[in-house]
């Protein structure tokens, strides 16, 4: 037991040690290890799994309406015949049960006549489909640390774009890749040795690339965050690889097993479908987490999912933000955004939420329309003693806490500390802090 404890302690120290002075390959290896730790932490914490479980129910409820809407849209572009083979590929890990589920779903879609539903039925149909996308956005927003969803009007337009444009692009690409194999010129190129090998490799990799591009489309457009395309592609390629691997394992060990049929009888098909949908959503959310950590690597520097600051660091960080924002304005530089400030400080962007909220409520800084931050008043008018007092008492009046009963000794001690701080900082303003920070002798 002591040896194991020592090994775990050594591994923990190695994982969270400073990597600035290490060679590049060691920094990359350490970053990959921290990424694995973050993914394992997010999965074991339960929140990603809970979102995946909730999406299973919503998917089962809206699967047929979603296919009906997609079928109607695709039919207008003449690629609706691609729906059945793609659905069959998605359900392939279920084995024979997947073929039966595919047949039943296509029958339901064919029998559903949108024209006879009426306005109320059509509205309910669209609501069921949009609720699925809304549930997906909530899961992605959790992954991307987004607390506020889109406004309703923006949400509706984004959802309709995903619903109408997404299937068209995906199935068009699928149809294009399928038609290349029947092209005369492509066949003639396949007769040439180098091109034949490359085209055969492209044909094998086409399903993986197509599912990865579909994941990337969701990562970019669904969450209420600005997702960079390279980060979305990294997460999508990782999720696509997990999809292919999980499909192979599922079809080998679960889809082809007869135990579920022996236990659940006719319900075995539904049970297998629910398990595969859960695995699929979990893979999609893991890919979203990888995309997030690729775009925000500072979140990998801490042991916990949410950044934690002590009282001292909270005071220091708030003063740093105020001096950097005011200093950039004083030097005539562009107004820094929260993302730029987080990058320059080497911190997670979410750790700046509370300090920036404090500065805005105290009318020290103000946000511009472009998302930049500028001083709300002249730095000479912002006393450091007053600003520190605002930092120490932030949100005291909102939570309703009151010291009961009053402690005379503690009140006297706090008064002495406040008086000493005020006396020490008397006459000093934010402008003095900026000047001291920019002086050559400052460290």
Automatic annotation (TrEMBL):
It is found in: Cell membrane. The chain crosses the membrane at residues 55-74, 114-133, 159-181, 201-221, 233-255, 267-293. InterPro entries: Virul_fac_BrkB, WH-like_DNA-bd_sf, WH_DNA-bd_sf. Its main location: membrane. Keywords: Cell membrane, Membrane, Transmembrane, Transmembrane helix. Pfam families: Virul_fac_BrkB. It is a multi-pass membrane protein. This is YihY family inner membrane protein. It comes from Marichromatium bheemlicum.
């Amino acid at each position: 037991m002591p040896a194991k404890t020592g090994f775990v302690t050594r591994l923990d120290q190695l994982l969270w040690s400073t990597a600035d002075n290490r060679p590049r390959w060691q920094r990359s290896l350490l970053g990959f290890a921290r990424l694995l730790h973050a993914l394992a932490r997010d999965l074991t914490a339960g929140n990603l799994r809970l979102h995946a479980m909730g999406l299973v129910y919503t998917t089962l409820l809206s699967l047929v309406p979603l296919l009906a809407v997609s079928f109607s849209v695709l039919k207008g572009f003449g690629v609706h015949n691609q729906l059945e083979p793609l659905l069959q590929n998605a359900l392939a890990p279920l084995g024979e049960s997947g073929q039966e589920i595919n047949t039943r779903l296509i029958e339901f879609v064919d029998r559903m006549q949108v024209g006879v539903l009426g306005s109320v039925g059509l509205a309910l149909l669209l609501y069921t489909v949009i609720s699925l996308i809304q549930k997906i956005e909530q899961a992605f927003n959790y992954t991307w640390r987004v607390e506020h969803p889109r406004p309703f009007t923006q949400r509706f337009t984004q959802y309709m774009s995903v619903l109408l444009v997404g299937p068209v692009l995906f199935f068009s690409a699928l149809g294009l890749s399928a038609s290349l194999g029947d092209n005369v010129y492509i066949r003639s190129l396949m007769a040439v040795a180098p091109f034949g090998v490359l085209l055969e490799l492209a044909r094998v990799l086409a399903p993986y690339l197509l599912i990865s591009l579909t994941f990337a489309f969701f990562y970019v457009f669904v969450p209420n965050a600005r997702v960079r395309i390279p980060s979305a592609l990294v997460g999508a390629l990782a999720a696509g690889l997990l999809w292919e691997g999980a499909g192979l394992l599922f079809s080998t060990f679960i889809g082809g097993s007869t135990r579920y049929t022996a236990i659940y009888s006719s319900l075995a098909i539904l049970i297998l479908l629910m398990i595969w949908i859960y695995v699929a959503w979990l893979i999609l959310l893991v890919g979203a987490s990888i995309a997030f950590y690729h775009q925000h690597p500072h979140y990998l520097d801490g042991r916990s999912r949410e950044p934690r600051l002590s009282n001292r660091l909270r005071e220091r960080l708030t003063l740093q933000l105020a001096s950097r924002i005011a200093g950039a304005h004083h030097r005539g530089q562009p107004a820094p955004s929260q993302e730029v400030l987080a990058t320059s400080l080497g911190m997670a962007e979410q750790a700046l939420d509370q300090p920036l909220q404090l500065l805005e409520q105290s009318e020290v800084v103000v946000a511009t329309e472009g998302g930049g931050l500028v001083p709300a008043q002249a730095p000479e008018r912002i006393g450091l003693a007053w600003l520190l007092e605002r930092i120490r008492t932030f949100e005291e009046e909102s939570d309703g806490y009151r010291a009961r009963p009053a402690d005379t000794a503690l009140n006297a001690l706090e008064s002495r500390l406040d008086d000493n701080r005020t006396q020490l900082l008397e006459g000093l303003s934010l402008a003095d802090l900026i000047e001291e920070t920019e002086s050559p002798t400052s460290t």
